[in-house]
Amino acid sequence: MQSKDLLQLADQFGSPLYVYDAEKIKSQYERLTKAFSKVEKLRINYAMKALSNVAILQLLRDLGSCLDAVSIQEVQLGLHAGYSPDQIFFTPNGVSLEEIEEVHSLGVQINIDNLSILEQFGTKHPTVPVCIRINPHVMAGGNENISVGHIDSKFGISVHQLPHLVRIVENTKMNIVGIHMHTGSDILDIEVFLYAAEILFDAARNFKNLEFLDFGSGFKVPYKKDDIETDIEELGKKLSKRFNAFCEEYGKELTLIFEPGKFLVSEAGFFLAKVNVVKQTTSTVFAGIDSGFNHLIRPMFYGSQHYIENISNPKGKERFYSVVGYICETDTFASNRRIQEIAEGDILCFRNAGAYCYSMSSNYNSRYKPAEVLWINGEGHLIRAHETFEDLLKNQIPLPASVAKQ
């Protein structure tokens, strides 16, 4: 997308605004499938927690993607977007047996990540196809909050508990059809990923009726110019060869599954915000925008970096600014960042705003959530309207006058 397109959309739909480029999502999907083209059975389950707008789900469905859901609500959104139950994979963490059974009743493939629920579910439903999430105890990810495969993680069944796991399966005679792992996000060293894959292969040898192996995802995308990223092509070459060899050893052509979220949608996203005020203190020049961590929490939550440019003055001289929001707590998007000279009323563009941005937004300070627009075939299509005051009041129930006066 061009800056002029983004400016036109900000003018048309207002700010703050999320914009997603359909072509970028498509090219990322094709890049991933091409990297693993030598695997006979490949399945991509889009991790919809990254961005769950129904229009985005429909776009990915048309590309051939399936879904990875982590809640019953995401499963229902997937069904609403036109996915069939067998195209949805349920990978929750710490949910109740009741939620898992509700998802199962919808015909969706379930993935269980703790021994307690595994034994309870297996005892009640021994014939139901189940996948097991293994924790390989491999530390991977760009931040502690997004590294989920280490030994202290709440995710998955420890690989050291494999004998206990196997005993539960044997006692309940459960139908285990898949083994799953996920080490974390922002993986750079593909050798670490390949090492974890060997642990998954070892675990898989304990089960004779597998249909697939799920390697999760966590591929890093570039966050700024000349930034490093996961070498998907190299990973595809090495893991495909190893996976095919394991299938031959196993005696069956298994399906290779990935669950990319950020990889597919992060770079496709742009967050546009208007500069309300330029404020200079004794040591800092602040650019205060019409947004805050209620709309984009990632920089405050785990230090993520979003490249910020002034698309209203793209050729302006660069100066140092701290970009801050309007929330009544510290919400700093960037400190002393070089950005083209900023004036009040300019539109700032945050890159890499497609994943875990709108989906983690809130109504903190009773602010409205922004609109979302999909840029497709050279046109902007509104796929979620700006919230209104009525949206804030929805589901709120005032006290009756008789009670309030007591």
Automatic annotation (TrEMBL):
GO terms for molecular function: diaminopimelate decarboxylase activity. Keywords: Amino-acid biosynthesis, Decarboxylase, Lyase, Lysine biosynthesis, Pyridoxal phosphate. Its cofactor is pyridoxal 5'-phosphate. Pyridoxal 5'-phosphate binds at residues 218, 356. Residues 23-266 form the Orn/DAP/Arg decarboxylase 2 N-terminal domain. Pfam families: Orn_Arg_deC_N, Orn_DAP_Arg_deC. The modification N6-(pyridoxal phosphate)lysine is found at residue 49. PROSITE patterns: ODR_DC_2_1. Substrate binds at residues 298, 302, 329, 356. Residues 18-354 form the Orn/DAP/Arg decarboxylase 2 C-terminal domain. Pathway: Amino-acid biosynthesis; L-lysine biosynthesis via DAP pathway; L-lysine from DL-2,6-diaminopimelate: step 1/1. It catalyses: meso-2,6-diaminopimelate + H(+) = L-lysine + CO2. Its EC number is 4.1.1.20. Belongs to the Orn/Lys/Arg decarboxylase class-II family. LysA subfamily. Homodimer. Specifically catalyzes the decarboxylation of meso-diaminopimelate (meso-DAP) to L-lysine. This is Diaminopimelate decarboxylase. It comes from Flavobacterium magnesitis. The gene is lysA.
